[in-house]
């Protein structure tokens, strides 16, 4: 039977769904594997007008991580309306773990950083809790103390600072939203188990070799920059790494989607910045991936595709980044082994 054109409705590519369903599907995939585990790391609880709601905060981690291993860290789903990251996790989790393991790398993945927001489609969480006084919201991970003692959550370009610290430190003692508090707990544990370095001074950071977690990728979409056409751009949180290093990845992305090269981008920041010729914005904004840089990770990337980008394309871009960074890490490994 020939279907009439007017009746044809394409299946939605991927939609928000109960977090429990998403996580159960992902768990079922990972539980088939002997080489990785799906772990519940914490519970997020909210009181809503409909009653109490709880959500699992989970991670997926390779088995048998040894001190000499190199690890790729991935986070998805911090902003609830940005479903491309969780979609990439749901569709490609096996492919990602396989690709990393075949390359001799391990993974630590937080596939749904804000489960209630994912479920509701809200940017923050189901009760829009962005923390108490002094909190900077769900991605409030580190703060900077400037040379005059002032404390800020983001640095201007090349702005010197005295030190950085977690916002739960006694001097601020901010009440963070549960999503940020749980992520900080994870960072502290990854530090204690030696997968990230202890808090380093800038000089130590520049001299230290990377810790086992050598790269960190955070998958986002940008629904904030007004009138942005379908396109991709990216953040580099390690200003010691020239963005030229990622040129091949950017060129592959550009075969699929235009890159915002040299564009003014303001998404979610107090001051807008111009992306460089590869589509990068380099800044220290106190976010998770900025914290990963301070804790020693070498490749610290936030992936952005604009909200006007088809989900399928956003998913492709996410995978080009994940596989591209793995390829870079293997190359680096190869070079280390040269005489
Ligand atoms: Zn985002």
From TrEMBL:
Pfam families: AstE_AspA_cat (PF24827). GO terms for molecular function: hydrolase activity, acting on ester bonds; metal ion binding. It comes from the Bacteria. Residues 72-125 form the Succinylglutamate desuccinylase/Aspartoacylase catalytic domain. Gene3D superfamilies: Zn peptidases. The keyword Transferase does not apply. The keyword Metal-binding applies. InterPro entries: AstE_AspA_cat. Keywords: Hydrolase, Metal-binding, Zinc. Its cofactor is Zn(2+). This is Succinylglutamate desuccinylase/Aspartoacylase catalytic domain-containing protein. The lineage of its organism: Bacteria, Candidatus Harrisoniibacteriota.
